[in-house]
Amino acid sequence: MTSRPLHLAIIPDGNRRWARSRGLNPWKGHEQAIEMFRTISEWCRTDPRVSILTVWCFSTENWKRNPREIAMLMRMLEEYLRKERSGFVGKDVRFLHSGRKDRIPPSLAKLLAEVEEETKRGAGFTLHLAVDYGGKDELLRATKSLCITDASTIPPITEETLRSHFDQPSLPDIDLVIRTSGEMRTSNFFLWQAAFAEWAFTEKLFPDFMISDMEEALAAYENRTRRLGS
Q1: Per-residue pLDDT tens for 131-185?
Q2: At what angle do helices 26-46 and 211-222 cross, to 10 degrees?
Q3: Whole-prediction pTM value?
Q4: SS3 breakdown of the chain: % helix, strand, coil, rounded to 5?
Q5: CA distances (Å), 171 to each of 52, 177, 206, 222, in order?
Q6: Beta-carbon contacts of residue 35 (< 8 Å; ≥ 6 apart)
Q7: 45, part of any domain
Q8: Hey, is 170 helix, strand or coil?
Q9: Is 90 part of a structural domain of the chain?
């Protein structure tokens, strides 16, 4: 479908259902999901078909969940980054974050910014995590940022000028979104960047998602024709 490596995105649904089906607390599902994420991200890093992996870790709507579950998940994300940060540099990985930093724990917000700075020269692979992210929220924040500019200096409002105020304006649009657990909706996920993305849905809960499932989704994608309105 394309000669360039893909921007692949994953919505890793089903972690809580996975835990519930085993009589476990919901955060146990998140723990298992992080281990699966490690495997998948490393596979993507070494697969020449993929140059960018975007993963939705926590949405703007997830604040409605149990506070204890949220706290556990934020702690797990922080532990993951602390363990992986040195490896990112050694593996030529650029790390990026999209989403708000004003509502998550300050220690996590600081860590996200530090790892972004440490890996900014990474050119081999990009790992992009969406934490406290929502598509509508990003568009709203980008619009507000654009309007704050002095009226006399505001450039003509085009797709390019609005995009320049996104969290990660340098990233290309998403090519393929994989959503697990049988859910078949976009759910406010990168509304602009995924506007022309292909989608793949699987019944598997994310903790059960395997590399073989990734291979299957990419093989199906490669057999599609992206017309983009033509």
Answers
A1: 999 999 999 999 999 888 666 667 788 899 999 999 999 999 999 999 999 999 9
A2: 50
A3: 0.94
A4: 45, 15, 40
A5: 9, 15, 25, 21
A6: none
A7: yes
A8: coil
A9: yes
